[in-house]
Design a protein that fits this description.
Rossmann fold, alpha/beta, 9 strands, 251 residues, seven-stranded mixed β-sheet, globular
């Protein structure tokens, strides 16, 4: 396990008031994608946690040794840490961070509110699992990076240059269960969707709208790709998220 964390990949925690916000980054990515939102939440007086998920922010070799169970356990532990000291906790999740938010919703029914940014919550077909397994059986351990899907010129996401296939397969398998658990969301949600996304298909957002048992406010991001928090619409995301949290979590 690598001890050196990429610049921008460090975990973030701020001890604020009695209301908490958990921010979760995506697969192969880092806390750099949610850190601006984390700082805004801290400035608003919330207690804030943006954990570095296991295997992330160091080396792709570390990620190869982790999977969904590790990320799910870490996300749940971070939520429980906040819930132990806060009256109410909201979760902000980007991509796989949103997948993890639904996982938490299924086992902790007291989440106050959710912000989903280009969520991954729908399995795209068994052929993806079969392709991943075929590559692994052939000795292929990684494929091209899924990071830096950003429209804004000059912006590069802090993420891995390769995607470990075995780890990705655990996510593919887990999202089937996560999709079944969408109905367990009863708290209000803010859904922020890019109109063009080269990592997650747009019907993932449709799935959330259709299956959630809580209210869903959807905002389309017209000028951003997948990593929208680093893209042209980041100010839209930030203002909408802060207004949503003030309205549904409190100040």
């Amino acid at each position: 396990m690598t001890d050196v964390v990429m610049p921008g990949g460090e975990p973030y925690f701020f001890a604020g008031g009695p209301l908490g916000v958990l921010l979760l980054h995506g697969f192969t990515s880092t806390t750099s994608t949610v850190i601006d939102l984390a700082h805004m939440c801290a400035d608003a007086g919330y207690t804030v946690s943006a954990p570095r998920l296991p295997g992330h922010g160091t080396s792709v070799d570390d990620l190869m040794n982790t999977g969904w169970d590790d990320w799910g356990a870490a996300a749940l532990a971070s939520y429980d840490e906040l819930a132990a000291s806060c009256e109410r906790v909201a979760i902000v999740g980007l991509s796989m961070g949103a997948t993890l938010a639904v996982h938490i919703a299924a086992v902790r029914r007291d989440v106050a509110a959710f912000v989903f940014i280009n969520p991954y919550v729908k399995h795209q077909g068994v052929e993806w699992d079969e392709l991943a397994q075929t590559l692994l059986d052939a000795g292929v351990l990684t494929y091209d990076s899924i990071g830096s899907d950003v429209k804004k010129e000059g912006v590069v996401e802090t993420s891995y240059a390769q995607t470990p296939i075995a780890s990705a397969l655990t996510l593919l398998q887990a999202v089937k269960v996560v999709n079944d658990n969408l109905c367990k969301i009863t708290a209000p949600s803010l859904l922020l969707n890019s109109t063009e996304d080269h990592v997650v298909e747009l019907d993932n957002g449709d799935e959330l709208v259709k299956k959630s048992n809580g209210s869903v406010e959807r905002i389309w991001l017209e000028n951003s790709y997948h990593v929208a928090t680093l893209d042209n619409d980041h100010e839209v995301i930030e203002s909408a998220t802060m207004a949503f949290l003030a309205g549904h979590l409190g100040r």
